């Protein structure tokens, strides 16, 4: 069962995580990224290390909160031969050296636009020897005898870029005439955000050249072919069926 943070009880939540990656060196962490270098009990959080042989290869999880347009809403481990879960993106390479990110298992993250996000990730931790569940944290699996946990919570409407509740109430109580005069029409989309219709404010008028119909159709000659008007065609090929009528009588 997932355990999420309650924004109403945790008003000092940090910015949600915007991207998750893996680095090969603690000295080459990209600007704006926070690296998970230690486990919760103070051990080395290297996800590549081998328990039997010492290896010079290292891998550390990292994340950033600087991505303002999109946020991470879920993450999970899958086996290398498993199909990619729908909506998830694999972390295949290290951010600093472009080498394979992990071995044995694959890390996948799910990202969505910030404006439509409901539950988002706020923190990621690596747990070593301790196997006790952490409050408000969810475990996505183990790698090299270490478990990866993340904390998630609802994204407050004020952080989604949506109108505040007070503004919505004020708008709904305004008189229809005032509302129509002071603000454009908004459409409520499935994402939960409000967007101005592309057709709002566009005047629709008929071009002046179509206001007056031509009095008569002129004969046009194109490549030796004369194009006649409807009246000319009817006059030239008019047939009153008088012979047929005389026989019928």
TrEMBL record:
InterPro entries, per database record: MABP (IPR023341), MVB12A/B (IPR018798), MVB12B (IPR040297), UMA (IPR023340)
Any single GO BP term: viral budding
Keyword Membrane (UniProt): yes
Gene Ontology, cellular component aspect: ESCRT I complex; late endosome membrane
Domain MABP stretches: 14-154
Entry's localization field: Late endosome membrane
Membrane topology: Peripheral membrane protein
Pfam families linked: DUF2464
Protein role: Component of the ESCRT-I complex, a regulator of vesicular trafficking process. Required for the sorting of endocytic ubiquitinated cargos into multivesicular bodies.
Stated name of the protein: Multivesicular body subunit 12Bb
